[in-house]
Write a structure and sequence with these properties.
about 70% helix, globular, mainly alpha, about 210 residues
Length: about 210
């Protein structure tokens, strides 16, 4: 089990994963955290942090296409949906670490906010976008389409301000929509299950 986690950690170290970390490291240089209050920090975490979900998740089911045959043999005895769960777990841990570091930096710079509230809210938003992009990429067999659809959804939410999705509004934390993040967490769980199901069906069909 530990060996499988280590192997998949090595496998996801592709340009998109590195780019996600680069994106997060650039955030403090683009946005100043100095003495921000919670509503201001919420807008940054809700609308900026969560974009890394698309960058990190969209290609999670396609890494095998870029590795040697001898690496594929390592994973053959293991169900592919379980492999996907391991990769999702690695991405979740990466989000916790990356977002926490940025929020700690904001605290050091004098920002005032509820740490756990913004951390959990940004993780749920990032997973919603990321798992959506992954599902579209699997259904279309095109990672680019996964990126396009998820960014289009993100832009729609920005412009409509929840007029379409209402309680499932992606940036619900900004407007303190009741139960918003719990509802989106439910959406994440559904998307995770669907992604595993789609991947297994694709493997069975080969």
């Amino acid at each position: 089990m530990l060996g499988l986690i280590k192997y998949n950690l090595k496998l996801i170290m592709i340009p998109s994963y590195v780019m996600g970390w680069f994106f997060l490291l650039c955030v403090p240089f683009v946005f100043s955290f100095n003495w921000l209050i919670e509503p201001e920090m919420t807008r940054i975490t809700e609308s900026v942090f969560i974009l890394v979900g698309i960058i990190w998740c969209c290609s999670l089911a396609n890494h095998e296409k870029s590795v040697p045959i001898k690496d594929l043999v390592f994973q053959m005895p293991v169900k592919q949906s379980f492999i996907l769960v391991i990769r999702m777990f690695i991405i979740l841990v990466s989000m916790i670490i990356g977002f926490s570091l940025l929020l700690i930096l904001a605290k050091v710079q004098g920002a005032s906010f509820n740490f756990f509230k913004l951390l959990s809210g940004s993780i749920v938003g990032a997973l919603t976008l990321g798992l959506l992009s992954l599902m579209i990429a699997q259904l279309t067999n095109e990672i680019a389409i996964g990126y396009i659809v998820s960014f289009a959804y993100y832009y729609m939410e920005l412009t409509t301000k929840g007029a379409v999705t209402r309680y499932f509004y992606l940036f619900g934390l900004i407007y303190e929509i009741l139960y918003n993040k719990l509802l989106l967490l439910g959406v994440c769980l559904v998307l995770a299950v669907l992604n595993g199901f789609i991947l297994n069906k694709k493997i069975e069909g080969q």
